[in-house]
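New here. Invent one.

***
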Amino acid sequence: MPDRDPPEAERKPVTATLHGISRQDDYAWLKDPGWQQVMRDPAVLDPAIRAYLEAENAYKDAFLAPHAGLRQALYDEMRGRIKEDDSTVPAPDGGWLYFVRHVEGGEHPVWCRARRSSEEAAQVLLDGNREAEGQSYFRIAACRHSPDHRRLAWASDVNGSERYRIFVRDIATGEIVDGPIGDARGDLVWANDGETLFYTAIDDNHRPFQVRRHRIGNGGGAVVYEESDHGFFVGIGKSESGRFAIVSAHDHATSEVRLIDADAPESAPRLVAARAAGVEYDVADHGETLFVRTNDGGAVDFKIVTARLDAPERAGWTDWLAHEEGVYVRGQYLFAGHHVRLERAGGLPRIVVTDLASGEAHAIEFDEEAYDLALLPGYEFDTATLRFVYSSMTTPAQTFDYDMHTRERRLRKTQAVPSGHDPADYVTRRLAATGRDGAQIPVSVLYRRTTPLDGSAPALLYGYGAYGHAIPAGFSTNRLSLVDRGYVYAIAHIRGGADLGYGWYLDGKRENKPNSFADFIAAAERLIAGGYTAKGRIAAHGGSAGGMLMGAVANLRPDLFAAVLAEVPFVDVLNTMCDADLPLTPPEWPEWGNPIEDAAAYRLIASYSPYDNVAARAYPAIFATGGLTDPRVTYWEPAKWVARLRRLNTGDSPVLLHTNMEAGHGGASGRFDRLVEVAMVYAFAIAVAGLAGRDDR
């Protein structure tokens, strides 16, 4: 422990009563009443709040100071596994090949292109490192070239608040011809004239609520669509054919789509099908037919229907791919001659290709026990080449081009690990943990072949379990720094994610949310029973909604864990869901329930909300992180949680808080700067497991 006392946040009790239930919040003052302004300008943060956060950072620094050598070793190892001068496989578009590269020592991507049929040197379109000069935080969310290849538009964030500014450059001259266009979200779509840009605007409460049309060089922006329901977020995309800009409005249970003719950008958006509560859908176009992926009609794991473009309403939908329970249709992509869908079946992803002329379908096969897949559709519609990325927990990412006619795959790139990596040195397995109700929870496991499985190894167990996000069993160079030190690394594919289909998500949502916590505990117990680790030797790790999971299991079973690593944790659930002004609250009511209007939802959330359920008990070591400008999980959530934990913890395990005062939800923005934060969290886990001494160098 450091030679200083931990900070003690002042208690300023505030009582709130709802549904006849009163609760006291001692640390509500840590929420700056002008939080919207803080998101725009962190310098205006209340001085008393800033002083507390900085005191916590100083205490964290003092605690970790004896492990500076370990942190540096971890950082050096993780950086040594990154090929610094690397490039993506070029993606063809007309006469050009577009790609992104990183340069040696560079923190940010560089967007480039080269002539498709020429040996001319590549042309730099946007250098993220140059754009980031002088900024403590910098991130580019979108970078899009115009269909005529004359212009480049990008959206950048300079404080982590995800409030982007859009710029447009003339590629030939290098001059900025428009921007900054402010208060934007990070999604951009060009109309086919190369003169018109569609983007999403955010309101004062940081919600994307409008799609605007901007004519380059004309200033301002016309509102194309405005969402009146604060519970729906708005986005903009483009169909694979390039024929339509697609306006989407959605929450976590319902969606609605409108199409804008990309050849006539001033035309009005056309509604596909009016929103219906609980019905989700998205669309792709092929000639005069729309392909609609939807859960309409009780298709829990989604199906694909077709509709006439001139009559797209729900009444005219015809099944093209029938619903199959347990086979979750995650997404679809259309090409001139093929339909491609990405599915999850048996807990694993798969790609299915259908020849649109013959109707013949086939799946692309893979051999490993657990793996991950990602599709990279590219820019071209009239092509038989499908690009995808494959990896597993032992196999670095491999980029393939797949001929959808001949079914031949061509390896275009294998992720390089400069410091060396031999997959044969590692073992990956897929286990099953039995839940409290008999459900079989998949657990993906990675360890060195030489690691003893006699209960002596420490383990890190990662979980998320929300929004239907499946956690991929893919490759990560960072986790090797734990595994090479004798850790067992495991992923609990708990309910709330869609790892076993959309029903798996529904079984961990709203009134079923406690299943997520019980599943994670079952996964930990499965590791213990299998000899992979022992009780009190596990570091639990999760972030954002997975941070809620961390807070819940720390309250429910603190005895299982040596440490709880909670990054930007959503732990003040009840207060946040009762505050309709916060950015994500109304759209998240379908996910968690609306405690303002529903007394049952209030009581359920109150029963598991980590902050509200901190009690006088011995907690494991806890490391929480936050970002001052985070619009998703606001900085005061981890700050309040840590303050209450430290006051009520009856044990002597450390409770630390790190707040990045210059970043938001994702932490540091640079690819190497981010490693500093990863090394900090891992060093804490290693230290509390009692392994730090052997690596402090």
User: Anything to note?
Assistant: Confidence is low (pLDDT under 50) at residues 693-697. The two ends are 19 Å apart (CA to CA).
